[in-house]
């Protein structure tokens, strides 16, 4: 099964107050989008509290780029499945 999803985890941002956390999450997502766009990687980004999900077909390249963005603690390529 081919992976087309990356889970992005961030650190200290999650400890901030609600309003401040939202601002920092938005800045981080903006940085993710611009970094991927700069390398011509198409992506779709979704967010939940504590995690950001990046859908792309260029997993290896995207992971290498994401690891270098300030504020990101870890990235994990995953396979999105549907439960029975």
Short overview:
This protein is an alpha+beta fold and 84 residues long.
Average pLDDT for all residues: 90
Distance between the termini: 17 Å
Strand arrangement, major sheet: 2-3-1-4
Helical run tally: 2
Radius of gyration equals: 13 Å
Q: Which CATH class is shown?
A: Alpha Beta
Indicate the low-confidence ranges by residue numbers.
none
Write the element-wise H/E pattern from the N-terminal end onward: EHEEHE
Report the CATH topology name.
Alpha-Beta Plaits
List the helices and strands and how they pair.
Elements: E1 5-10, H1 18-38, E2 44-48, E3 51-55, H2 59-66, E4 72-78
Antiparallel strand pairs: 1-3, 1-4, 2-3
Can you give a write-up of this model?
- The chain has helices at 18-38, 59-66, and strands spanning 5-10, 44-48, 51-55, 72-78.
- Helices cover 35% and strands 27% of the residues.
- The model has no long low-confidence stretch (mean pLDDT 90).
- The two termini are 17 Å apart.
- The chain contains 2 helices and 4 strands.
Highlighted features:
single chain; 84 residues; alpha+beta; Alpha-Beta Plaits; four-stranded antiparallel beta sheet
């Amino acid at each position: 099964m081919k992976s087309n999803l990356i889970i992005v985890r961030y650190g200290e941002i999650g400890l901030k107050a609600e309003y401040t956390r939202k601002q920092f999450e938005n800045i981080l997502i903006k940085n993710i989008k611009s970094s991927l766009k700069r390398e011509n990687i198409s992506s779709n980004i979704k967010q939940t509290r504590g995690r950001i999900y990046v859908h792309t077909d260029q997993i290896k390249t995207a992971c290498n780029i994401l690891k270098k963005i300030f504020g990101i603690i870890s990235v994990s390529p995953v396979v999105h499945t549907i439960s029975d």
